[in-house]
Design brief:
With about 100 residues, the chain is mainly α. The protein has a domain of about 30 residues. About 55% of the residues lie in helices and about 5% in strands. It is built from six helices and two strands, in the order H-H-H-E-E-H-H-H. Strands 1-2 form a two-stranded antiparallel sheet. Strand 1 and strand 2 form a beta hairpin. The mean pLDDT is about 90.
Length: about 100
């Protein structure tokens, strides 16, 4: 939930910086950084981080699946285990692994 997470960040920053944040600016920041809005910007050519397919030269979508991404279905189990093994410490620290 972007609103909830953004509120946590704002609360934290407010407490350490001792400043107030404008609610309208925060609402606008959430709206403009939404997956749907960023995907729309990319489609209209306003997102410079797009990359090209190495074989065809066609632009590949940077914002592809977003919230619908289910990497467990898309990523081969062998590769998943390899990643978990190689980055085990980092993944535990970030609470991706128990």
């Amino acid at each position: 939930d972007p609103d909830k997470e953004f509120a946590k960040i704002v609360k934290f920053l407010s407490s350490i910086l001792n400043i107030e944040f404008n609610k309208n600016i925060i609402t606008e920041a959430i709206k403009t950084s939404s997956f749907d809005n960023l995907k729309k910007l990319e489609k209209s050519g306003l997102f410079g981080e797009s990359v090209a397919d190495t074989k065809s030269g066609d632009k590949k979508d940077f914002f592809y699946l977003g919230p619908k991404n289910d990497w467990k279905k898309l990523l081969d189990n062998k590769i998943s285990k390899e990643i978990e093994q190689k980055f085990q410490n980092e993944m535990k620290e970030l609470k991706y692994l128990g």
